[in-house]
Predict the 3D structure of the following.
Amino acid sequence: MPIDANTVRKIAALARLRIDPGEEGRYVSELASILTYVEQLQPLDVSSIEPTSTVVEGPPTPLRPDRIVPCEVREEALEQAPEREGDYFRVPRVV
Amino acid sequence: MSDALTDRTAESIAAAVRGGEASAEEVARAFLARADRTSKRLGSFLHRTPEQAIASARAIDARRAKGERLGALAGVPVALKDNICTRGVPTTCGSRILEGYRPPYDAHVVERLRAADAVFVGKTNCDEFAMGSSTENSAYFPTRNPWDLARVPGGSSGGSAAAVAAREAALALGSDTGGSVRQPAAFCGVYGLKPTYGAVSRYGLVAFASSLDQIGPFARTARDTALLYDAIQGRDERDMTSRPEARPVSLDALEQGVRGLTLGVPRDLLAAEGVAPEIRERFEVASRAFADAGAKIVDVALPHAQYAIATYYLIAPAEASSNLARYDGVRYGLRVPDLDLATMYEATRGQGFGREVKRRILLGTYALSAGYYDAYYLGAQRVRTLIRRDFTEALRSADVLFFPVTPTTAFGIGEKVDDPLAMYLNDIYSIPASLAGVPALSFPAGFGPTGLPIGLQLVGRPFAEETLLRIARAAEAWGDATTRAPAIAREGAA
């Protein structure tokens, strides 16, 4: 599965990542070499093998009780905002 | 006197503070003075917190004066990797996108260490978002190896490993996703433990690859590693992967020796190309010593471990691309203004993330995208099952597995920075245990011909951290691997 500048632009757009056009070539060659390396998995017949999404074994991890706990960090959290307006995070125009 | 304090183990410092032989303030000042001399040259810390350290040390001394019983880490200076959230103290993950970020809460491990009366001395340097094996991917500055300043300390938790090796802190925490605690521990000649997946809560650890991330301790002795592990392990309801099976290590049990234990050696993995002769030699010397001490050494097979790097570099970037979607310039961290919301996201992320992080986000997005998901991400998850089964099988006939941590000793700064794949291949021995979720310990096993440290690895059954530390503890008797200090840690000493 070849990877070219178009593919890099497409996945960068999906990832909301601005890539400097001068850097596209470098990403193409680096990603191509990594993808060539991972091709070694393709010959393995794993169609009958269950995928591992978590390594946790044994009984399900106990659920915590669903209870209300105070979270008194609103001001501290809002102070971290690049731009705020009152008790809101402010963002640029959406539409 | 102050240098004598920085050479002491965490265990003896805590005992001295509890018994009134040394004050927590005196201990804190000794370590802070040492870090004053060396931390800038080493690049070990992103943020030092000397004032807070003195203040908390004084509070501990005041509580002792009132007759209060102090915790297991009373007055012990601890450094924290900068991807562990500390309330009101900068937490940047070595990234520009989190420059100036001060979390409004403490990570679970930070709460636990505070409760044990540890003293925090600062946040350590790391590869950006823990992505790297050399700490050269920090957006701020690289960390240098205390044994040779022209070499890397390993990574991604390179700052924590360097700080402990250079006696700037008695203990440190890092995080290990594919070897980020064990590999820098090996390069810097200290202990590094990756606990069983689920043994330590990640609440407040900035997420990289959630099916792999674990917080782990750095220390200079097996007993100190156990002390720090004991303080942070255990169930926490705020991390859905935190397991009730986790249990503390008994310090007494570490003194039992290796007699009766079976160590499995994966010969196929050891035969890999590119393993340096000094690593092989150290491994063989240690194997013979374990056998002489009464352990049984058997051969085991990990037939799918050869696929671990390829599997990891699909799974970890895929999970990272999802976890790092949260850095959008809205609620915290960097914002780069642009025309509208969507272009603001792109500009912020384009400028705020470094090259390695962008590379992995691109790779992960690709592996998860329509048309490639089944072949790449799902395929890798299936191979991961085969790798896990290998470990389960091998750990039936052996109590632990024994092999190197890294194929070479610490490499030079700049040596691999332009070749991401070469950097990834260095992780061949650390990644398999991460994929299997089992505990793995890097312990100092001596030095190569040029004086660089060599680490060896013990991998155990789930929640068998105690067995790993017990075996490493036995190895401490054989040489000066855990007592020799780098020259930089001796500078200015009387």
